Amino acid sequence: MAQKGLCWKEDEMGELVHTGTSSPDISVIRFLAMKHLPGSYDTMDVAFFAEGSFNKLYCVSSPHLPQDYLIRVALPVDPFFNRESEVATLTYIRKYTSIPVPKVLAFCSSSESELGFEWILMEKIGGVPLSDIWDEMPVEAKESLPTEICGYLKSHQDLQFIKIGSLYFSLVRERVGTRDFGGTLQAIPTNTTLDCGINTDFVIGRAVSLWFFRDKRLSLSADRGPFPSSYQFMMAKTQM
Question: What is the reported pTM?
């Protein structure tokens, strides 16, 4: 099945795989970076940085910028919802945890834009692969690293909600299928005050999941949440 910018097809093992049908224009990426980054610059370098399952990343740098930035260009696997949820989730994690995630400076959740793709402009967090420096690390640093990682995992685990779905900004609540399940559900106690619901900055809406958007499933009329329990969530998956 093909959609704008994306095609699903079977590989030699019969598994569905996705591929992009077009590539972003570097000159447009440079234009977007100059438009949204602070200041005005005559020169700005944009270079391919990395790619993942559904994204390509481009590094934006300039001697006039305080740091490097990344523009993450996304395939339209779940148009609008995927990008809106990713940005809201990054913002939520930055607000309520100490997990080092990049700050988002600008984003577009529509492929009907100058670039022709959905995109996110964010800070580039410094670092190197652990495998590159492990042998040279002091013993004390090696011993403290697992504790630090466990702390990040614990703060992430503490963010528990009363619905199963994806996070969004409240500004798009009318588009993401939020549901009120009444007073029968109780929030799971945590050490974090969760800012999520009516009259807050965030809401839980329909789930962004490969299970729901793979191949022709994106066009099917189906329940995509949010769900009040794991049972309803699993039932929705079996009905796709």
Answer: 0.82
